[in-house]
Amino acid sequence: MASRKGKQTFILDSKPQISAAASIAGKKESEGPLGRVFDVTLEDDMWGENTWEKSESKLQREAVRLAIEKRGVRESDIDCMFAGDLLNQCVGAHYGLKDMRIPFFGLYGACSTFCESMALAAMMVDAGFCRRSVCVTSSHFCSAEKQFRMPLDYGGQRTPTSQWTVTGTGAAIIEPGEGINISSVTAGRILDMGISDANNMGAAMAPAAKDTLMCLFNDTGTAPEDYDLILTGDLGVVGSELFRDMTSREGKDIYSRHEDCGCMIFDIKGQDVHAGGSGCGCIASVFSSEIMNRLKQGRIKKMILMATGALMNTQALYQGESIPSIAHAIVIEGSK
Predict the structure, then answer these.
(1) Cross-strand pairs, 175
(2) Can you give the pTM of this predicted structure?
(3) Which residues are CB-neighbours of 257 under 8 A, at least 6 positions away?
(4) pLDDT tens per residue, range 61-107
(5) Beta strands 168-175 and 164-165: pairing type?
């Protein structure tokens, strides 16, 4: 049963395990440094569908099916599903997963949704409400550009601080047992530092990442050296620099332990993605492939997985609002 520690952290006494994970990545992502580790890569980001949005729904559906297949169970063995995406009213998840008939919680934490879903699923399993839960999030470059910026047909110029929304998805099954285990959850707080540039997500999200990480350290009495890896979701090049600098000013040096999925998934210069990757599918696909492999191989014994999200939409920005952000973190312990 979970117990609260400090202001924002929950210790999961049973330490639910991540028993299976699956990843799917788009064509550009498959051409990046991690292309070989994804379970499925696409030759065409439409994936046989007639809209980008339908393609994104298919990403979620097939990732969940693949994770279930890897675990060796059936859809009916899943007690609960936690899912989300970046599209209006989370329709990527709704349309992709509607035929599975699994009890469903739709989530929106922007790009923090994958860690939010894993945190809530682990807490449900730890409390005994679910035997087995599945988490899944996705993003799609084309559907995100159309919604948040401008349709690709317009050929708009990208600023140096802009990030490339990852076409990809990751799904993870969480249940009781020994293996790769979630030992704690640190819930983030909404922060708004007055940044209003939608093409500089890293700067908007870095303060939330620093806030949650410092809270995790304070609540648990740990320090950077207690972890093999501190992995953020999609701060990208700009946000990662800011995050490390801000944390250093708090007396915590994370430079040698921090990696960011938005920097890992692409060859930043070679693939012309400016400040790196972003989107719900960024951390989901990287964690469900490369990081799970490291955990299974014993290369990571204990890590912090933290996803950040910019909690805005285009209408709020048109009305002159700045960009609130959040970060959620979970502590994962590798196989003994």
Answers:
(1) 17
(2) 0.94
(3) 224, 225, 227, 228, 229, 230
(4) 999 999 999 999 999 999 999 999 998 889 999 999 999 999 999 99
(5) unpaired
Do residues 161 and 237 touch, judged by C-beta distance below 8 A?
no
Beta strands in the chain (DSSP E): 3-5, 9-11, 17-25, 40-41, 80-84, 104-106, 133-139, 164-165, 168-175, 181-186, 229-232, 258-260, 277-278, 302-310, 325-333
Structure tokens at 57: 């729904």
Token pair of 256 as six digits? 């040698």
pLDDT tens digit sequence for 11-29? 999 999 999 999 999 999 9
Domain end call among 128, 153, 175: 175
Q: What is the number of domains present in the chain?
A: 2
Q: Is residue 138 domain-resident?
A: yes
- Phi then psi dihedrals of residue 312, to 5 deg: -135, 170
Q: How many CB atoms are located within 10 Å of the residue 79 CB?
A: 17
- C-alpha dihedral sign at 122, 103, 23, 255: negative
The amino acid at 230: I
Give the domain-ending residue among 127, 150, 175: 175
Enter the tokens of residue 174: 């969480």
32, burial (CB in 10 Å: exposed 0-12, middle 13-18, buried 19+): buried
For residue 287, give the CATH number of its domain.
3.40.47.40
Instruction: Tell me: do 144 and 231 sit in the same domain.
Output: no
Q: What range does the domain containing 254 cover?
A: 181-333
**Token pair in block for residue 176:** 């009781």
DSSP category for residue 111: B
Residue 181 Cα distances to 8, 176, 304, angstroms: 20, 9, 12
* DSSP state, residue 154: G
